[in-house]
């Protein structure tokens, strides 16, 4: 079974530039998550999708961050414009979503973003 | 507000020793407590998890101890090996609605040969 795929693995941009990250979850997983992991900290949830609908985006800085999950499969996370404090690893995770396994999340390797 | 507090921040254990990582939570709505293991350059991977209706769960060399009244839980790694060197995160999940993980800050474990 293929895991969660993310690209790119690394990205370096200057502040005020735009950047986009892509995630392809495990096939058949209904729930998709984007997390921000700042160096030395645990992942922080940015947004959670159930199929193609948003169920939690309370911690997403909506003035600069946006995300979409068209057709309920892959997803993109965009930052526009980027700030220095956005330097972090952006992790995508997916979950089967059904009651039996709804708590189990599978993570991709992440995209490491450096904002200069 | 940090909902899940984890300690220590870093830990060095000799090969064959016992590694112990502790976590505490405040929100009594949490009802699922997983531990994740993360190697450099990789995403976190589920290691072991427990529900609050049991006090202990063991899987191989990994054991979770859970104290519901104290709102604390801990990970014990028996016979620690150099391959266990990684960052460990405790987490908590609210029972109702969609599962949302709240992570601790992590513990960097180094097992010396």
Can you characterise this structure?
The complex is a heterodimer of chains A (116) and B (113). Chain A is mainly beta. Chain A has no helices and eleven strands. By secondary structure, chain B is mostly beta strands. Helix content of chain B is 0%, strand content 58%. Chain B is globular, with a radius of gyration of 14 Å.
List descriptors:
heterodimer, A: 116 residues, mainly beta, seven-stranded mixed beta sheet, four-stranded antiparallel beta sheet, globular, B: 113 residues, six-stranded mixed beta sheet, five-stranded antiparallel beta sheet, 11 strands, 0% helix
Strand content of chain B is: over 45%
Helix content of chain B: under 10%
Rg measurement of chain B, Å: 14 Å
State the distance separating the first and last CA atoms of chain B. Answer: 38 Å
The helix-strand sequence of chain A is EEEEEEEEEEE
What share of residues of chain A is helical?
under 10%
Structural class by SSE content of chain B: mainly beta
Query: Biggest interface in this structure?
Result: A-B, 25 and 24 residues
Outline type of chain A: globular
Number of helices of chain A: 0
Count the strands of chain B? 11
Assembly status: heterodimer
Overall average residue pLDDT of chain B = 93
Shape annotation of chain B:
globular
- Category by helix and strand content of chain A: mainly beta
Low-confidence stretches of chain B: none
Report the major sheet of chain B.
6 strands, mixed
Give the rounded overall mean pLDDT of chain A: 92
Give a brief outline of the structure.
Chain A is an all-beta fold and 116 residues long. Chain A has strands at residues 5-7, 10-13, 19-24, 31-37, 44-50, 53-56, 65-68, 75-79, 88-95, 106-107, 111-115. Chain A is built from no helices and eleven strands.
Layout of helices and strands:
The complex is a heterodimer of chains A (about 120) and B (about 110).
Chain A: E1 5-7, E2 10-13, E3 19-24, E4 31-37, E5 44-50, E6 53-56, E7 65-68, E8 75-79, E9 88-95, E10 106-107, E11 111-115
Parallel strand pairs in A: 2-11
Antiparallel strand pairs in A: 1-3, 3-8, 4-5, 4-9, 5-6, 7-8, 9-10, 9-11
Chain B: E1 4-7, E2 10-14, E3 19-25, E4 30-38, E5 45-50, E6 56-59, E7 62-67, E8 72-77, E9 86-94, E10 101-103, E11 107-112
Parallel strand pairs in B: 2-11
Antiparallel strand pairs in B: 1-3, 3-8, 4-5, 4-9, 6-7, 7-8, 9-10, 9-11
């Amino acid at each position: 079974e293929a895991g969660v795929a993310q690209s790119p693995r690394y990205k370096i941009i200057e502040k005020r530039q735009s950047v986009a990250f892509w995630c392809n979850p495990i096939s058949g997983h209904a729930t998709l998550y984007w997390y921000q992991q700042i160096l030395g900290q645990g992942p922080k949830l940015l947004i959670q999708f159930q199929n193609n609908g948003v169920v939690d985006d309370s911690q997403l800085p909506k003035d600069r961050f946006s995300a979409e999950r068209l057709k309920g499969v892959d997803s993109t996370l965009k930052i526009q414009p980027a700030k220095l404090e956005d330097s972090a690893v952006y992790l995508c995770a997916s979950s089967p979503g059904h009651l039996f396994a709804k708590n189990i999340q599978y993570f991709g390797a992440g995209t490491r973003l450096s904002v200069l | 507000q940090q909902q899940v507090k984890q300690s220590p921040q870093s830990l060095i254990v000799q090969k064959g020793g016992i590694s112990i990582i502790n976590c505490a939570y405040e929100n009594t709505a949490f009802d699922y407590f997983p531990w994740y293991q993360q190697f450099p350059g990789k995403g976190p991977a589920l290691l072991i998890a427990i529900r609050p209706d049991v006090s202990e769960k063991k899987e191989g060399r990994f054991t979770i101890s859970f104290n519901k009244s104290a709102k604390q839980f801990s990970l014990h790694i028996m016979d620690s090996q150099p391959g266990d060197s990684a960052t460990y995160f405790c987490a908590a999940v609210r029972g109702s609605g969609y599962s949302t993980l709240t992570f601790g800050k992590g513990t960097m474990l180094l097992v010396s040969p």
